[in-house]
Amino acid sequence: MADADALSDSEGGGIGRRLMAPVRGLAPWEAPITGNLRRGDLGRALAVMGLVVLWLVFQAFNSNYLSARNLSNISVDMVGTGMIALGIIVVLLLGELDLSVGSIAGLAAAVFAVLNVRAGLPEWPAVMIAVASGMAIGAFQGFLAARFGVPAFIVTLAGLVGWTGLMLYILGASGTFNFDDEGLVASLTSHYFGHEAVAHGLAAVGVLAFLTVSRRTAHRRRAAGLPSVPLSRTLLETAVLAALAFTAASVLNHFQGLPLALLIFLAVVAGLDHTLRRMPFGRKVFALGTGAEAARRAGINVTAVRISAFAVSGTMAAVGGLFLASPTASTIQATSAPTLLLNALAAAVLGGGSLFGGHGRAWSVLLGVLVIESIASGVALVGIQPAVQLLISAGVLLVAVIADSGVRRARTAHGLA
Fold first, then answer.
1. Topology classification of domain 40-194+256-413
2. DSSP state string for 315-351
């Protein structure tokens, strides 16, 4: 049992090919960097450097960019796209693509608005039905791809068009619906926890959880006779995380406090990360993404796993749609579906998700979507035309895909692909 647990702690979900021991002769802070260089796995490091450069450039053009208000707004604005990207990362782990997430997000928001406004259904049941509709759509698309062998990108490309048409149909001639701007969905992005202890308490809990999980993982790996991260490196990483977390908490408290949207997003990220790395479903997803035939011979129900992955993607797209509709208390425009897809896919790949499958983490989406929303916020503050923002986002996605391809080749050269 210890062996299985230890192997599951690696990013490969039971494959255990990422050696976590430090490079001999190097300081604790140099080992991760050198290891990543040797594996070619520098995607997240490049994303961090890119984020720093973006912040400095936009701050140079507008001194309000790094203000507490704008950074707090970014933390809220990134949640809708981030939720969609979390679903995409699950599908990417299979080596598949879901091109319908933008349309599903818009459809879910429309279903909620129509049920709540036109049918008079209370918000809670309307939210549950809207999310369930996204799950059903995702499962249906996954069934078509898995059962009939149709490429997933073809099925979901049809969904991109079809679900947009269905959204327009149920919205009717008005083309949009406004719902209660003080209700449940609207409060998702408008509610803040103003007491300073809440943000700092969340930072403390996160740091302690990271330290506890890291040491427990190292203990299990040592018990299984596998290389483990030394205590010095764990303490260094914990110190860096603590500095970032408490700095972020202080920035948020300088505006209105901890946003409810950010709290929910972090909870969902943590839950999905635990599911993918610790639960049987996640291990099966990683195994299928690494090799479908090997997974089938190992007794994994490949069809069920694929359907479940697309159901997760549809569910997260629906949840993201509700968060995106929250600030304006109205449905999402049909024309925004391609943009949502572009941003969510870019966030997933920037965060370390691989288009080749078998590689990625839920926590990495947090970094990827932060980069995407930082660009959107900077473009708005500087006054660049929205069309240019699309060009920038497309360029970021292209760079991320090229980097992913390079990482893939490097990992293959080191026997880690």
1. ABC transporter involved in vitamin B12 uptake, BtuC (1.10.3470)
2. HHHHHHHHHHHTTTTBPPPGGGHHHHHHHHHHHHHHT
